[in-house]
Structure to design on (405 residues):
C-alpha cells in the first residue's frame, strides 16, 4: 500500500482535534472528508478507517510509541507510524515521519498484548468495572468483540418495500446485502458502502440501524391503532421502526429533551413516509405530566454509558468517566419513576439501554420494582444481548406491565 501525503495529513489533523480538543470522532472525520472533493471512495475510507483505528487503539499505540497527551504533531505522526508498521505498510521518507524502529514496535506489541488493558486498549477503571460487573470470562470476550469494527446493517422500511425487493434494488446499485436469521427487517452489507447516496435511501426504503437495536421496537409488542409514547426518542431510529410495525396507524408521541434531535426525526419521518408521529420537546415538566395515564405502550430507551456500542463509537472509551456512569444510573432511576406514570393500567413498557452493565440494566429494573413507583408493575420478560455472542451491539431490554386495575 502506497501512502498519500494529503490523506495521511488529513488523518493526523482529525486525530489532533479528537485527542487534544475532545471533539467527537465521527464529526471530525466528516469534516476531514470535506477537505477535497476530488477524493474517491477509497481515499475517503482510508481516512475514516485509519482515524477510527488509531482512536480505537489509542492506549496501546501510545504505549508502543512512548507518547502521552497532549499529543504534539510529532507524537501523532509517531502513532500513525505504529499503526502503519503493525499493518506491514512501508513508511515513506517524509520529514514528518522519523526513522521507525519496526522490530522494536512489533516486539513491544507482542509484549503488551499479554496484558488485557493494553491488548484491548481501555482505561484501567473500565477494565476493572467490566470484570466486577460481568466476571473475567465474559468481560474478556465482550471487550474483545466491542473492539471489532461494527458491520453495516439496514432496517427495511416495510411501509414502503419488502426485504426481498430492497435486496434486488441494492444489487442493481452494486450493493450486496444479505438477510440475517432472527432479524426479520434486517439486511447486512457484505462490504461497507456509502448507502446514503443510493436512490433506495432517498426514497425512504431503509434506515441504517444495528440488528440488535431493531429488536427493541418488536419487544414493545405494539399494534396498529395504539397510543405509544417514545420518551427518549432522540433522532428516532426506534420511533420509525415502531411506526412501521404499527402500519402508520394510531399515534406515536415522541419526546426528547433535545429539540434539534426531534427536528432530525421529523426529517427522517418525512423521507420514510411516516405520518403518525407527534414530536414534543420536553421543555418543561408539564409536557410529561400531561401524558400521565394515557399510553398503551411506553418506550424508555434510556440514556446510558453506551458501553454496548463501543465498536461504532470507539472514542467513547476515552470520553467516558466512572463518575458519568454513576450519575447516569441516578438519571435512569428518575426516568423510570417518572415515565412509567405515562402508562395506562394494563399497558406495557420497555426499558432499554445500549449498555452491557447489569447495574444499568437488570439491577435498575429490580430496584424500580421494589420502589413505590414500580409497585404495580411486573417484569414480563427481559433480554440481554452481548456483542461477543451476537456479533452486533450490546443491548438490554425489559418488558414491564402495569398490573393496576
Amino acid at each position: 500500500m502506497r501512502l498519500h501525503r494529503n490523506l495521511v495529513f488529513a488523518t493526523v489533523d482529525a486525530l489532533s482535534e479528537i485527542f487534544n480538543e475532545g471533539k467527537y470522532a465521527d464529526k471530525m472525520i466528516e469534516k476531514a472528508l470535506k477537505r477535497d472533493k476530488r477524493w474517491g471512495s477509497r481515499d475517503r475510507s482510508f481516512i475514516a478507517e485509519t482515524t477510527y483505528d488509531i482512536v480505537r487503539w489509542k492506549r496501546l499505540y501510545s504505549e508502543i510509541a512512548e507518547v502521552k497527551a497532549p499529543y504534539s504533531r510529532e507524537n501523532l505522526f509517531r502513532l500513525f507510524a505504529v499503526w502503519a508498521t503493525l499493518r506491514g505498510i512501508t513508511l515513506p521518507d517524509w520529514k514528518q515521519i522519523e526513522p521507525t524502529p519496526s522490530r522494536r514496535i512489533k516486539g513491544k506489541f507482542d509484549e503488551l498484548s499479554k496484558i488485557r488493558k493494553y491488548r484491548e486498549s481501555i482505561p484501567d477503571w473500565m477494565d476493572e468495572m467490566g470484570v466486577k460487573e460481568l466476571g473475567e470470562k465474559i468481560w474478556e470476550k465482550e471487550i474483545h468483540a466491542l473492539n471489532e469494527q461494527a458491520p453495516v446493517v439496514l432496517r427495511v422500511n416495510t411501509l414502503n418495500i419488502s426485504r426481498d425487493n430492497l435486496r434486488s434494488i441494492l444489487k442493481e446499485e452494486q450493493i450486496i446485502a444479505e438477510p440475517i436469521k432472527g432479524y426479520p427487517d434486517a439486511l447486512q452489507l457484505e462490504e461497507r458502502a456509502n448507502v446514503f447516496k443510493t436512490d433506495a435511501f432517498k426514497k425512504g426504503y431503509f434506515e441504517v440501524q444495528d440488528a440488535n437495536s431493531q429488536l427493541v421496537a418488536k419487544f414493545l409488542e405494539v399494534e396498529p391503532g395504539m397510543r405509544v409514547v417514545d420518551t427518549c426518542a432522540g433522532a428516532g431510529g426506534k420511533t420509525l421502526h415502531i411506526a412501521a410495525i404499527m402500519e402508520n396507524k394510531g399515534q406515536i408521541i415522541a419526546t426528547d429533551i433535545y429539540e434539534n434531535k426531534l427536528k432530525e426525526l421529523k426529517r427522517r419521518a418525512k423521507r420514510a413516509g411516516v405520518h403518525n408521529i407527534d414530536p414534543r420537546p420536553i421543555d418543561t415538566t408539564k409536557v410529561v405530566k400531561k401524558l400521565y395515564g394515557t399510553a398503551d405502550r411506553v418506550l424508555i430507551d434510556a440514556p446510558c454509558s453506551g458501553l454496548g456500542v463501543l465498536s461504532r463509537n470507539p472514542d467513547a472509551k476515552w470520553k467516558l468517566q466512572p463518575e458519568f456512569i454513576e450519575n447516569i444510573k441516578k438519571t435512569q432511576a428518575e426516568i423510570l419513576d417518572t415515565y412509567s406514570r405515562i402508562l395506562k393500567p394494563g399497558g406495557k413498557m420497555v426499558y432499554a439501554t445500549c449498555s452491557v452493565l447489569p447495574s444499568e440494566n437488570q439491577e435498575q429494573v429490580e430496584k424500580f420494582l421494589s420502589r413505590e413507583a414500580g409497585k404495580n408493575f411486573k417484569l414480563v420478560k427481559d433480554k440481554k444481548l452481548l456483542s461477543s455472542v451476537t456479533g452486533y451491539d450490546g443491548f438490554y431490554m425489559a418488558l414491564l406491565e402495569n398490573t393496576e386495575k
The chain has a mean pLDDT of 96.
